[in-house]
Amino acid sequence: MPSSNNHGSPMPFASFRRPILTIGSDQVHSEMNRDSSAQNLDTFKRQVFTRFHDISVVDANELLSISWICKLLDAFSSCQDHFQVVLSNNRGHLLKPPADRLATEFFDRAIKALDIFNASRDGIEKIRIWQKHLEIVLCALDTQQRILGEAHFRRARKALMDLALVMIDEKDTGSVFSHRNRSFGRKGKDSHHHRSSGHTRSLSWSVPHNWSASKQLQLIANNLIPPRGNEIEATDGLATLFFTMSFILMFVLWVLVLAIPCQDRGVQINFTIPRNFPWSTPFILLHSRIMDESKKRDRRSSNGLLKEIHQIEKNVHQITTLVDSAQFPLSEEVKEEVRANGCELLLVCEACKNGLDPLQRQMRDVFRKIIKCHTEGLEALGKATEP
User: Fold this and answer.
1) What are the residue ranges spanned by the domains of the chain?
2) How many Cβ atoms from other residues are within 10 Å of residue 348's Cβ?
């Protein structure tokens, strides 16, 4: 019987085993990566729900206050950090369609958001100017004075008239702050060098007179639709990640535009809150509560839905009525009304004094995080064009 060795040299077992082990290792590694990516996405979704649920169920007295806006920005910042970690761990997917297109669309929305942060910053500066006039009113109508006479009321009336002028909505004439051309992202005399470099240049370096917060917000909201199943599968879930973060960004900006004085702000932005995502419920509740609050106020005369702005407008109206109708010598009843309104106005002024600085710092931090994410994201996408 002929030997089997005559049919050819047998393949060494070690050589036969190596490719099998390599293939198996690659499959396991790929599956582990997919599992890790899915875990990160699930953790991100849970974080979105938890952070925004906490701020959606606050007491009515806290909703839309300065402290609440700070919590809103903190929730956004936390989600932004986690979002960036997930992106960093999935850079390879960003180079493949359709993830590359979805990433580009997200970063385009992010850079448009910087304009709204700058406009909100200007709105905070506007409230600071109101404070200066309110301090004059409080000083003039200080009920601790032995005598509260006509001269004090004339001084208060002058301050109230000046305040009324700066509180007028300037959407038709352009904000006085738009002339300053400042930005969270610019510092010092050499800032013009930074404008011409990098990927972060945009209209946010200057808010022109005809700029509209509502139109800018609508540009961000346009084409913001949930991803289809094939997009989710093709991107290993990154399509859902980009949509979720885009929606959060748009929603937070919508709240800022409603709450803080901005050029041509409005509540009627065309967007839909998705109901088939695990994180949807807090946003549906928040939208409902904020819309209910907006219906309670005359948006044509109000400078914003911020709780402190509402209190300022209410107290200023009451004090103006008292000052205009006062007859001397003042009755004890009028003195008591002046004292009560003065105390309420003092409280809201203190709330603004203590809250606006932390709010502005938090807005600056979020602004810079968006720039950082935008820059790193475009650098990752740029690798797709490298030879």
Assistant:
1) 40-186+200-385
2) 19
